[in-house]
Amino acid sequence: MATYGRHGLDTHTALEDALCTLEGGRRAFLTPSGLSAIALVLLSLLGPGDHALVSDSVYAPLRRVDLDLLRRLDIQLEYFSPAHDDLAALIRPQTKLVYLESPGSLLFDVLDLPALTAIARARGVPVAIDNTWSGGWFLQPLKLGANISVQASTKYIAGHSDVMQGAVIVDSDDLARRISITHEALGLTIGADDAYLALRGLRTLPVRLAQHQTNATAVAQWLQRHPQVVRTFYPALPEDPGHALWQRDFSGASGLVSFALRDADAAAAGRFVNALQLFSIGASWGGYESLALVAPPERLRAYRSWQNPAPVIRLHVGLEDVQDLIGDLARAFAA
Ligand SMILES: *Cc1c(COP(=O)(O)O)cnc(C)c1O
């Protein structure tokens, strides 16, 4: 029972319980945005002199938390490429956290989560993973050995582009205690109406995600055959390098599809996005509507697995009629 507003009301408890059920977790913590959920994990588990390993295709604003906050606290984050680096060799005595995201942001590279979590667990290092892409429905990372799942509930959980919210779901009482101390110290809380919006979103999460998958698969298959596309990034495509891992660990694919343009520069990519009429320009995906943006080249350069100068466009394929969406893309290519 709540004793003070900041500690939440029954609506908050109902959402925390639902998120624990969704992710197979022990306790859930609510935060005012996905980024604050990420910062909560980092600040809870890391202190001066500590080191953490972070996969290089992670949601890029995490690097701002690193530069603007963690460095001042003498906390060192090291970015590694799970495809190229040996995680076991990178873990040091000071390593207190492995932080992953799968599929990665922008290019959706799929990580071998059971293998990576086994390495970290053998060294006693907790593993957190950003699970926003799957909405918690297509992947349960705690069942694959991760200890903490991070959700930007702003995206698929709320699902209607009308609320900002995050969540941290943990697998043990010990981690719950450590996260709860920082959550309390920072006074992190959300409004009960926002918690209600996330609960309402959860009720349609499976049907929305199934439709995102159907539409995104059709768009990805169409893009893959298009002569002006060098490469399409969508793990549900059999040709995608992450397909086998995705098929093993995930029960579906969500609405994000990226593609690299052939013989085009940044200006041409900008013209393409501007020519779209049904896809709005926007970053915060996960709602009903289709979105497009040119992936920032400096963010792509941080990924060791894709060193190609071709401009990349990221789509969020929404719930609209997919033939209309493909027609819009065809018009933009023509333009
Ligand atoms: C959007 C996003 C976040 C941050 O969520 P906000 O609610 O916008 O702060 C974190 N991780 C991933 C993968 C995201 O796409």
Q: What are the defining features of this structure?
A:
Cystathionine beta-lyase; Aspartate Aminotransferase, domain 1; Aspartate Aminotransferase, domain 2; 335 residues; alpha/beta; 7-stranded mixed beta sheet; PyrdxlP-dep_Trfase_major
Describe the overall structure.
- The protein is of the alpha/beta class.
- The protein is built from twelve helices and twelve strands.
- The strands form two sheets. It has a seven-stranded mixed beta sheet, sandwiched between helices. A five-stranded mixed beta sheet has the order 8-9-12-11-10, covered by helices on one side.
- 48% of the residues are buried.
- The protein binds pyridoxal-5'-phosphate.
- The site of pyridoxal-5'-phosphate (PLP) has 14 residues, from helix 2.
Q: What's the CATH topology label of the largest domain?
A: Aspartate Aminotransferase, domain 2
CATH architecture of the largest domain: 3-Layer(aba) Sandwich
Task: Give the end-to-end Cα distance, rounded to a whole number of Å.
Answer: 59 Å
Q: Write down the Rg.
A: 20 Å
What do the pLDDT scores average to?
Answer: 97
Keywords: Lyase, Pyridoxal phosphate
Cofactor: pyridoxal 5'-phosphate
Catalytic activity: L,L-cystathionine + H2O = L-homocysteine + pyruvate + NH4(+)
EC number: 4.4.1.13
What's a quick, concise take on this entry?
It is built from twelve helices and twelve strands.
Furnish the topology, listing elements before pairings.
Blueprint: H1 10-23, E1 27-31, H2 34-45, E2 51-55, H3 61-70, E3 76-80, H4 87-90, E4 95-101, H5 113-122, E5 127-130, E6 148-151, E7 166-170, H6 173-185, H7 192-203, H8 205-225, E8 229-233, H9 243-249, E9 256-261, H10 266-275, E10 280-281, E11 291-294, H11 297-300, E12 312-316, H12 322-334
Parallel strand pairs: 2-3, 2-4, 4-5, 5-6, 10-11
Antiparallel strand pairs: 1-7, 6-7, 8-9, 9-12, 11-12
Helix pairs in contact: 1-7, 2-3, 2-6
Bound molecules: pyridoxal-5'-phosphate.
Residues 33-35, 59, 101, 105, 130, 132, 152, 154-155, 164, 166, 284 line the site of pyridoxal-5'-phosphate.
